[in-house]
Amino acid sequence: MTLSIIIPTLNEEAGIGQLLTYLRQLTSPTTEIILADGGSTDATTSIAKQAGVRVLVCAKKGRGPQMNEGAAAATGAILYFLHADTFPPAGFEQQLVSAAQTGVGSACYRLRFDDAHWFLRLNAWFTRFDVDAVRFGDQSLMVCHEVFAQAGGFNENLQLLEDQEVIGRLRKYGRFAVLPGFVTTSARKYKKLGVYRLQGGYFLIYTLYRLGVSQKRLAQVYKKLLKL
Fold first, then answer.
1. Which of 40, 51, 162, 195 fits as disulfide partner to 44, beta carbons 3.0 to 4.6 Å?
2. 72, 77, 11, 23: which is closest to 52 by C-alpha?
């Protein structure tokens, strides 16, 4: 079963080269890497092209639309959505293929941050549980191509939490699994904005989302809280 790795990007020149080099070292030549770019104004796309990665300049900006466009262009039987600042574990390619071969329709990894702050370690600890409330895009997402199509892909009407909302729909078309390994993701936003402030903002946004607050209002609250 072939694998397509899809990475949504927007101005990720600082770290994309390191990630692509890492992925090339851990994957077979048949594994496809697609960078779905939302209109970067820095060197993101040129770095990716130099690394021999397929670059899509997406028609619509936003993580959901970009990942959908990447999926539409992918040729692999297995799709693996990965953030540009997140590194999967060694052996991930075979782990994902093995999971799909044993009947898993979609899956993610547990989470680790590249920072030892106790609160971040506590947050990451909860990702071992198979509970949708702790499913976020930083954990990466493996989906069998057929299951992704049946579920309808990411909801492009969502400005926030699109990577969590899709999990419930994916479960309807195949077994979901939390894989035993860990991805390591950057704590750069936490360092910039403050661990408690950023996590508190995320918690508030999720609570409002569960209460049915509109995406437009959620985006306004998010920008105001985090001063983006």
1. 40
2. 23
CA–CA separation, 87 vs 103, rounded Å? 25
Phi then psi for residue 182, to 5 deg, are -125, 140
* Residue 18 dihedral angles phi and psi, to the nearest 5°: -65, -45
Give me the phi and psi of 63, to 5 degrees please.
Answer: -60, -45
188 vs 138: CA distance, rounded Å: 13
Burial call 78-102: b when 16+ CB within 10 Å, e when fewer: bbbbbbbbbbbbeebbebbbebbee
Q: At what angle do helices 195-210 and 215-226 cross, to 10 degrees?
A: 170
Q: Which residue type is seen at 224? A: K
Task: Supply 219's token pair.
Answer: 């985006």
Tokens of 7: 């990475």
CA–CA separation, 70 and 84 (whole Å): 14
> Residue 4, SS3?
strand
> Residue 43 in contact with residue 13, Cβ under 8 Å?
yes
Angle at 8 between CA 173 and CA 113, to 5 degrees: 90
Number of other residues whose CB lies within 10 A of the CB of residue 56? 20
CB proximity list for 212: less than 8 A, separation 6 or greater: none
pTM over 0.85: yes
